[in-house]
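Co-fold these.
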Amino acid sequence: MDTASPRTRMSLVGVVVIGCFMALFARLWYLQVMEAPRLQVQAIANRTRVVAVEAPRGRILDVNGKVLVDNRTSLAVTIDRAAFKKLPDQADLVNRLADVLTRYGTPTKVSSLEKRYADVQFNDLYPVPVATDVSEEVQWYLAEHADDFPTVGVERRSTRVYPYGAAAGNVLGYVGRITAEKLKVAEPGIDPDSGAVKSYQSDSTIGLAGVESTYEKDLRGTPGVEMIEVDSKNRPVGTSAYQAPKPGTDIQLHIDIDVQMRAEQSLQDKLLRLRGTNQRDGTLRNATAGSVVVMDPQTGGVVALATYPTYDPREFVNGISQERYDQLTDVDGVSALIDRSISGQYAPGSTFKLVTATAALSNGLITGGTSYNDQGVYTVGNPAQEFTNAGSVRNGTISLPTALTISSDVYFYWLGDRMDGSKLIQDTAAAYGFDKRTGIDLPNESSGYVLTPEEKKALKDKYPDSYSDGTWYTGDNVQLAVGQNVIVVTPLQLARAYAAFANGGTLYTPHVVWRLLRPKNSEVDPGGVISVIEPVVTGTVELPPDVRDPIVAGLSRVTTGLGTGSSAFIGFDQQAFPVVGKTGTAQVEGKADTSLFASYGPGLFPRYAVTAVMEESGFGAEASGEVVRHVYEILAGQTITDAAPASSGSSD
Amino acid sequence: MLPSSVSRHDSNRSRRDPTAPARHIDPLLMLSVAALSIVGIIAVYSATRGPGPTYSSSYLFKQTAFVGIGAGAFVIFSIVDYRKLHDWAWAFYGLTTLMLVLVISPLGSQSKGAQAWFALGPFQLQPAEFAKLSLIGALGFLLSEFRGDIDVRRLFSLLGVAGLPMILILVQPDLGLVLILTAIALAMLLVGGLPTKFIVVLTLVGLIGIFGALNSPVLKEYQINRLTAFANPEDKSNPAVYNIDQSQQAIATGGVTGEGLFNGPQTKLGFVPEQQTDFIFTAVAEQFGFVGAAIVLLLYGLLCYRIWRIAQIAKDSFGSYVCIGVLAMFAFSIFENVGMAMGIMPVTGIPLLLLSAGGSSTVTALAALGLVMSVHARRFQ
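Predicted complex below.
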């Protein structure tokens, strides 16, 4: 071999070279033909980012089709965090951006930009919105000076808009960015047509209160999908596929915005007029809070649901500051974020006599004609315990209708005494829907309670420090008969009980939402009805004529003549629209009375049940009665009057 | 064989002279060189124009200029008798050695971690590329002088001549070029008659050297990354694995027929690092598919075959050795470069001659091929 010819060795070199080329061909075939499908998938995944495009939410309409919540396009300033991290002069950029935003109408602190930018909830893949709802001028300025603002962009997004301002804020609720915790547990809705899942992303909007929350699955739109092709530096270079977002389902409420605004306005006016005055016993009326419920007794549809104080959903549109949020939780000592109409719990006072009367009549304790001599005071037990009428008024010998009309407490103390040892009142209260949630389609409803002897004992056993006595005394039953001491109800429960009495005894689940509609620009059947929330019957109260008639006779005269509520209805045409109702004045230890008024109308063919409950406001007629009357004015199409100046009140 | 007394300077007679160099141009060599150079310009442009909408053409113009200069070098080296290189071998060798010394002095400039360049205005000169040619000349000279009779002393002189530029280039450092010089030297020594026992010894020493280098601090971190990436391609934390993955995905994206010129997404979006130089093959493979990439490999195969053939029919042993050196230079570059792009060789910074962007490598490659053409054209003189 040492002397082997150069030709032999050249052949050896040639063989090596041929071997190399064969290896290259084999590998090329393997990569481009055999392994190509697998590697191509990797390559596509590598250069494609799937981005969800948030869809506009469905609109919210009132019963007459007036738009209560709509959408508008707003502009948000974003920072591309992945690219921003590599910038040399980040602080300078943020300073200049804050200046520009402030100059063009969005006062912005550097710290707030930094806080939004640093929010770990945002994915680096998407530009982070650092300032929302900025002016067009900001967009133009940033477009003209794009070179000075690298990584800064402007995005168009859909934002809630409220044509009626703060009206019905407690019903509508508000939306906000989904929190990290909610993102983990949120169950997305399903698109009614395509069946697509309306999945959430880290910057998705979600309903946080009111129907925005309870109908989240319907209101939320179906996100679009954008497949963005990116280059090796993760910069978008084009869209490889796009599926447009689909707006969410519109929902139409039973709420009549005109009635709602009337109720809100009247409630607020009356509370503010009462505030700072004294009730008859000299207690200061703080008149801090109140609520009004208007229901359709035939369906359970909620026509108005007012609460005071309340909030303006517009404040939540671009995210609310913690400072402002804290303010809302303490408006003159009470929270504006609580809807008292569904979660406030109050002793019902004399409005509860409807239940006591029903219990006594149904069980044959009395008939409509059974009379009792009301001497202004009723004594029970040993040692003797005295219960009096308001002002210790003596009403003489009266039967049930009169006892209701003039609100004789003694007559009902007597009934309570006679039903002691039974649970007749509690059972009847349960039939009217007290002591448990109504199931209204709004969040955070309270259940109230109507204590039984067993429950009182159980409470004492469970909370020995808070309850000094677990024994059920006759006095407890006597107080229960007039809606005091061992019972609390929500204004909504009270309204539903009167609605059930009005329609002959059928208990409906209250609903603020009437039906679901397709978006107005839907491809199929625009604006068409997807589904109607049918009335749901949850129970019945047996109301044969010998039970119902004496009560109707008594309640019909409450708003007239000698009735306790008559002063509130002076000038209201009861011939055209008779109002059947009951005043209530619930005593609260150390505070002015809770003023209640529960009612329905018009008398023989009830279309509305209206209830008002006002805290620390005095007698039923003078505060709540007047607010209820104002609401009936608009329901009945009668002359609109203003809230009257506060008086010291006459009777319960 | 015809008498060599025929005058090479009598132009009047050369027209009818059947031994005249002009009558012995290798058309297949010409064809493959021209085709590969044009494919190179297109591939470099496609890999550097960017995703749009405005495109960069600076690489297009530069590479076209380099091919133009290289074509000039090709013509000059074809026309000039290759035996002149025999005469000038040591002057050329000395000059490039001097440049290799100067480039690691403060006169040279750094780029991508290697002190390998002279900055000349907008261009950069890489003297190590020229060292390939000067080594071919110097070894060709010595081997043709030794006439296959190589003892230990001569072996050491050969190793010394080959080792000097290698050591200077290792200082830069440019491992890829050292490997090419090694391939050139090995092939030339083999064909130049190195006794088998020396081949065995050299192989052993080489293996020990590689083993020692891997376990010593001589190699930089990125070099170790590249070697371990080759050994363990599933380790995604290794930055070199990203290169290899992107490269193979781009090649696979081409499929059988390719995505079409300027339509390769991985190329257009810049996913393959160093695509216009070390990974230019991926641009060809993605845009023109298996069909295009195989044609390019066949063109390279044709080129190598022609060089190999010329080595065999060369008139003298110097011409033969020179051709073997050029063959080794091309074959090793192709195998290593295309092999690393496809994941069957470790990543090393070696250009794919004629295709990769770069002035020094393109001009050197074309000059070397001109030299081969000269050997072919003068095989009867």
